[in-house]
Amino acid sequence: MRVFAACVIALLLALIVYPPVLSSTVWMGALHDSGHVLVFAVIAALLCAILRPRGARFFAIAAILVLLAAGSEFAQGRFGVGDAMLGDFARDLLGGVVGVAAWVAATRRRPALYAVVAFALLAGLAPLGWVGWAYAQRAGVPHAIWDPHRATWNVFIESPRTGTFERLSDGRGARFTADSDGFAGIVIREPTADWRGFDALVVSVANPGTRPLSLNVRVDDQPRDTEYEDRFNREQVLPPGSVLRWRIPMADIEQGPVGRPLGLSHITRVVVFLSPGSLGTAFDLQDVRLERAP
């Protein structure tokens, strides 16, 4: 039985380092994060079944769990799929608490520990519920691409590596500040996929700075980084202190790629970004939505 448990632990660790290749969506990302908690809960319970901990053995199990969590994250970043993440390491340890507490509660008749198990599981799975709520909200307003008044929708903003993204204190949007001189900006993932029947894309933005800024809107219909000629892209200059309600006709978006129409029935993302040479420049994104013909 102990050999079987050890084999299961090895298989679970391999699953973390080399997870199955699935669609790259916000939902799958949240499911992967929550999976760390559940996988390490099972690993911890199996370790308890192998070692039958009492007294100092609990410290040994804790040390093993830390080593396995750190080792699996290092291996994933070095040899596996994805990057090593401190958040995943923390979720691994939270799962370890769940597994040990559940084993003790079940084998030592400590029912009070089930409350610890429930609380820890709730904390570990809360992001999955948050993402599910965001999807439900978005499904109810298919014309809205990004709405600053819906806090859950930030899950659809791809973590910018080219700058900082923070909500404005007045609740009227979010400010992006570039700390890169390249194409720095905000990626909105998984917008309403079918734009047929809409007349225009409307992007409401503001320039809070004291010099003009060159802003771009990009629309992709392919789940990959497309070439410039194979997507829609448009540039607009915003004067200092200006607010712009930028209305882009759907016909223009459809004609964006060279040699083919953009697939309006399967839009994958919208990107709002600065032209190169904008290090330190900021813009306020207030709203992004689809507009039907009057």
The whole-number mean of residue pLDDT values reads 88
Radius of gyration: 24 Å
SSE topology string: HHHHHEEEEEEEEEHEE
Beta content comes to 15-25%
CATH-assigned fold name of the largest domain: Jelly Rolls
| Tally of discrete structural domains | 2
Low-confidence blocks of residues? none
Beta-strand segment tally: 11
Structural class: alpha+beta
Count of discrete alpha- or pi-helical segments spanning 4 or more residues: 6
| CATH class category of the largest domain | Mainly Beta
Helices, strands, pairings?
Layout: H1 2-17, H2 26-51, H3 57-78, H4 86-107, H5 113-140, E1 144-146, E2 157-158, E3 163-167, E4 174-178, E5 185-189, E6 200-206, E7 213-220, E8 232-238, E9 243-249, H6 250-254, E10 269-274, E11 282-291
Antiparallel strand pairs: 1-11, 2-5, 3-4, 4-11, 5-10, 6-9, 6-11, 7-8, 7-10
Helix pairs in contact: 1-2, 1-3, 2-3, 2-4, 2-5, 3-4, 4-5
Characterize this entry briefly:
The protein has 294 residues and is of the alpha+beta class.
Keyword list:
6-stranded antiparallel β-sheet, Jelly Rolls, 6 helices, 5-stranded antiparallel β-sheet, 22% strand, alpha+beta, 294 residues
